[in-house]
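Hey L., structure's done. Input below.
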Amino acid sequence: MELWLATGNKGKVNEYKIGLKELADLKIFTQADIPSFTPRPEDGKTFLENAQIKARTLKAVKSGVWVLGEDSGLEVEGLNNLPGIHSARYAGPKAADSENIAKLLKMMTIRPIANRKARFVCSTVVFTPDGAEWHFDGVMNGTISTKPVGQLGFGYDPVFIPEGQTQTLAELGPGFKNQHSHRAQALKAFLEKLKA
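Output:
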C-alpha cells in the first residue's frame, strides 16, 4: 500500500508513521518527496475544507494511490473557539510553535478568562486509489494550562492538559498522544474502514 501524506509537518508525519505501523506493506511518502510540489493556500472556512484542499492538491499530482490530507487545530471556549483553523499561524504566517503559544496565553490574560476549556479537533480526508473520498474526525477535550510545561510533542502540546489528566500533552509524551489524541482517533477510524 502506497500512502501519500499532504503535509510538511514533521511532527504529524511521525505520528502517522507510528499510528499506521500495523500495516506491514505500507510505504509512506509526503508532499516533500515531490520536488516541484506547491501546496495551495489553506483558505477553507472549516477544518474539513482545509483537509480537502490539501488532499485534492496532492491527489492532482499523485493519482492512483492513497492520499491523506488532514487539518487540525485548537479551539478554546473562552476565546470563542479561537485559534481554530488559524492554529498553525495564530501569531503570524510563519510563526513558531512558541510564538503561537505565547499569543494564546497572552489573549487569555488580556481579559482574564475563567473558562479554560479547550479541545483539539482533527478532520481527515482520504482519497482511495480509485478516487473515492473518505472523511474521518477526532476530538480530544481538555483545558489550557497557565504556562507551557514539557518538552515532548509539538504545536500547543505544552499548554494542553487532556481531560482526566494533570499533565500537559508535552509531559505525557508520544505514547499517550498516539493512543488518545484527536489525530489518533481519526486514524483509528481510517484503519477500521480499511479492514472492513
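The chain has five helices and seven strands. The first strand starts at residue 2 and ends at 5.

-- N.
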